[in-house]
Write a sequence for this structure.
């Protein structure tokens, strides 16, 4: 059994990879699975998926700590990504929200989102945008 001093450094912080909790919201199961797979390639990301804005808000409310990042489709049935972002901004203004959509020409990115992805998107585009808000443990800032 490892002793606690070998797990934590002298300041009491974990020496393991930083873990980021990311929430992915889309009403299409295939896109939720795709983003989950893309993000899960980074070992320091933990991904939770939700199928709608209301489900995402319930997931946010039930947690003891906020997500580090929310990624939402812009156009969903029921609550849109813009509506979801507004709700999140009201409750948790420190949580960055990214949007993705095939129709980004009408996306109000500066007002509602911290970044946008145009569909179709590549693995490198996803990792680059997510990395701005959740830097990999081995990156130097």
């Amino acid at each position: 059994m490892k002793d606690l001093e070998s797990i934590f450094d002298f300041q009491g912080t974990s020496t393991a990879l930083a873990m980021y909790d990311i929430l992915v919201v889309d009403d299409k199961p295939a896109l939720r699975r795709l983003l989950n797979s893309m993000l899960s390639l980074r070992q320091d990301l933990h991904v939770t998926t939700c199928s709608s804005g209301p489900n995402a808000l319930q997931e946010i409310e039930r947690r003891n700590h906020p997500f580090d990042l929310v990624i939402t489709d812009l156009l969903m049935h029921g609550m849109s990504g813009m509506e979801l972002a507004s709700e999140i901004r009201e409750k948790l203004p420190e949580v960055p929200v990214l949007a993705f959509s095939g129709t980004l020409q009408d996306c109000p990115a500066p007002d509602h989102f911290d970044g946008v992805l145009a569909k179709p998107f590549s693995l490198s585009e996803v990792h680059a945008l997510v990395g701005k808000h959740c830097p990999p443990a081995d990156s130097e800032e």
